Every structure is written in C-alpha cells, then in structure tokens.
Amino acid sequence: MIESYDMSDRRIRKVLIVGGGTAGWMAAATLSKLLKNNYCDIELVESETIGTVGVGEATIPQIGTFNRTLGIDENDFIRRTKATFKLGIEFENWGRIGDKYIHPFGPYGLDMDGVSFHAFFLKHHGEDYTVDTPEQYSLQAVAARQARFMRPVNAGNSPLSKIAYAFHFDATLYAKFLREEAESRGVARHEGMVVSVNQRPEDGFIRSVTLEDDRELEADLFIDCTGFRGLLIEGALQAGYHDWSHWLPADRAIAVPCGRVDPLIPYTRSIARDAGWQWRIPLQHRTGNGHVFSSHFTSVEAAQDILMNNLDAAPTAEPRYLRFLTGHRKSFWKKNCVALGLSAGFLEPLESTSIHLIQSGIAKLLQMFPDRDFSQVNIDRYNRVTTFEFERIRDFIILHYHATEREDSEFWRYVKNMEIPDYLADKIALFESYGRIFRENEELFNDTSWFSVMIGQRLRPRMYDPVAEVQSPQETAERIANIRSVIATSADHMPLHADFIEQNCKAPDLEGV
Ligand code: FAD
Question: What is the pLDDT of residue 414?
C-alpha cells in the first residue's frame, strides 16, 4: 500500500539555502514559486562581509524558460538588471590569429529532405568557407554582425518567428532582483556568517549551521550555494573533487568593467590571448571585461597588462582577481545537502554555461525532491545525470582549445597537442569522416553549436555526408542561395539593438551613460 505523507510525517519541513549569490537567490526564487501552498519553509543565510563573486553576466537561451517559470516580466527584468540581448558569441583568434566567427543561437538554414543543413553546406562549399561562411545562414549571426535585434514575431515560416536569444546582465542586480522575487513569496533571509556546520553523530547528515553570533539554523534539506569554498558539501561532507585542469588549464581570471561603447552589440566577444582569452560583455550602462588565463603559462602581471591594454573604454572600477579549479564535486548531492553554483563545480565561462547549470540543477532537484528518508537511488540519479551534463559541456569547451592551428605560445602548443577525453575524440573523428554530428542523451549543445565551432576553428571533414546526394548540385546551390537571401532580407527588417532597447526596456537610470 502507498503510504500517505500525513500519516508518516516524512515530508521536508524546512530548506536552508546557505549563500546568497546568483545560485542562492535563483534557488530561493524557484523553490518558493514551485513548492506552493506552504509546502515547506524556505530560508536563506548569506554574509555581506563575504560578498559574492559578482561576475557571471552572459547567459544562453534556456534562461528564458527560467524567467517564464518564475512569471517574470522580461522587460521589467531587463530594465532592472541593465541587461542587453545576446544572439551568440564571437570567437576571435581561436583557430588562427586573425580568424573570427560567431557561434550563434538557433539553427543554421533549414534541414532539407530529412538531411541536416550542414550536410548540404559542406557539399556545396567543399573546402572553401572564406567567402561564404556558415554565418550567412543564421539569422542570429547576420543580425549580430549588424548590431540588430528584435524578439521573434508571428511570421509563419520566416526565420523572424524563431529568433533565439539570451541576455547579458549585471550579476549583482540580478541577484537583487531575484531576492525581491523570493522574499515577496515568503523566503526568510538571515544576515550572518556561518562559522560551523553541525552534523548528526549517527549518520553524518547536516543538522544545523551556527552563525558568528551563535544563532543556530536547523533544516531538513540544505542547499550549499557558498561559492568556491563549498562550505557544506566539501567543508563538512568532504564530497571530493574531480580536477579537470589538465584539459582546461585556465585557473585565474581578472575582471574589470569599462564604459559603454557604441554600437551596442547583441553578442559576447571572446578573444583568444597567449595563455587564455578575454571576454567583452556589453550591458546598457557599461561593458564587462575579463581575462581568463592559466597561471602555469603566464604571470598575473602580464595577464593584467593584456586586459587593461585591450579595453574599449576607460575602466570604471578596480580590477578583481579570481582563482578557480576547473572540475566538479565527486558528489553534487551528498546526504541531505545539494550543491548548486560554484560550490558544485566550475567550468570556465567560454560558453556562458554556469548560470544554466544552476538552473538545471534546481530543475533536477525539483524532479527528485526528497523526503526525510533521502532515498539513495534518487541521489545517485541526480549525481549521475549532473555528471553527464558537466562532462559534455567540458568536452565542448575543450574543443575550442584543441581545434586550433595555433602554436605561437607554450599554452597553445599544450592544448593543441594534449590528450583529449574519448567522447570528444569520437565526436571529432565522426565529423572528420563525413561531417556528421550527433547530439547524444540530452547533452546541452546541439549539432548547430558543434558545427559552428568545428568549422569556425578549421576542422574539415574528408567527405560530406553521402545522403546529401539526394539533391543534385544545382538544386542544392539554388536552395542554399534562397535560404541565404531569405536570411539577409529578414535581418533587414530588424531594428538596431540599441533602438529596440530604447523603445522597449531601457533601464531608467542611464543618464550620462
Ligand atoms: P558566489 O557568488 O560566490 O556566492 C556565494 C554566497 O555564499 C555569497 O552570498 C556569500 O556571502 C555566501 N557565503 C559564503 N560563505 C559563507 C559563510 N561562511 N556564511 C554565510 N554566507 C556565506 N556564469 C555564467 O553563466 N555566465 C558567465 O558569463 C560567467 N562568467 C564568469 C566569469 C568568471 C571569471 C567566473 C569566476 C565565473 C563566471 N560565471 C559565469 C559563473 C557565475 O559567476 C556563477 O555561476 C554565479 O555567480 C554563481 O555563483 P554562486 O552563487 O555559486 O557563488
């Protein structure tokens, strides 16, 4: 017989989120929205003395689902976080110095006769993509190059009805925005520094945390959002860490904002440097900049010089210095503690995936929400699925470094020649045979993304997919030319990104910017 929770009293009565950065407030806002009818108490503790990492400003389109789930009005969110729209990422100097390509959101062209568009693209273009690049077949990429943006409109089969986009936003304002959402739904916030984590002697489960002023906060379920330190998952529960720095050797970042520049581009820029890469993230009021680099291959002073000498405008604050170790906890969920955000693991922000991993972690936690028995089979599934997700994103990020012709610095010689994970080696081998790409088991990045980076960084298949022979070369040429022209015409209908923001969602306090 199925037991009732009224009878057994095994429900979670209280969740304590420890940490109030992006991860903590995303968790608080979602749990308070979806665990309705006072299902359980939700509390959050954070320390203003410690603060947040304060970076994390570029996202991928899945954030739209997150906002819709919370019932957030998008224009309101954009105004409040001084956000801009994002249609993709431009990679510069990655395959060779001087190369540039956009990894856009959304698909390239159209699949035809059940065969992927990229098969026809490869058939049509042979080896030469210098004149006609895949970008011409992505509305997002064409619009990005022209600094245009609009939201999708109801326009039948037109690519204008399928514009995929994400945001760049101010991370501190985003956490504040989510905090208001969460507190309006009854989440109680405690200010204070956690100084000890108290475990039950009989099974090691966390019973409570103690704050500096001796307050003790108890809960049934703890969510560790304490950032890199992983105060609960590592400090108390010693989950262990899988270190991936041999594949992704960047271990430092320096971040600094500078003034806004025009035109207001709707994409992130990622520029490869001697021992890492530099980001530029356009916001309504400023540009976020950072240099991610490996301290094994360059010095902090040299990295800082590269960053400060390559800003588009004068810096508006002092640089911030961050250290990290790429990898993830061996257990994301252990006993009655789930780690989200930087306490769960770290993958460098090359494809803006960390905030997505928080969102996805929250969604999985809700799918496998425990009772006070904390069934191990649920915990194991959560850990298995999350590990798969991290590993597949890892492989995609490694691709950016490994698929290069650069040998101009020790760093690039290392990443070009290093051993890579088997899964990635297999993906590359499949592509190099017939230009085929498969998305497996719900991995985050689809064939468009892989195609974009592989072609953008000069990987070439030996043959195109034989099934593309279903069309004659002439038919392929005509249909491809037609797609290209529809995309060019569609982009002409889009307003400038800056104008779209001005008319729909301009932040109120931008005077003087
Ligand atoms: P934090 O922001 O570090 O927050 C930790 C919280 O825990 C704080 O509130 C702190 O007060 C609290 N805390 C810690 N210890 C205690 C204690 N003892 N007592 C009480 N409270 C405590 N992600 C993206 O998606 N896109 C990007 O473009 C991107 N860029 C990035 C660039 C860099 C250089 C880095 C390092 C990260 C980037 N990320 C990006 C990742 C993103 O910043 C994080 O995923 C996100 O900010 C979540 O951080 P967090 O909330 O886990 O941790």
Answer: 98
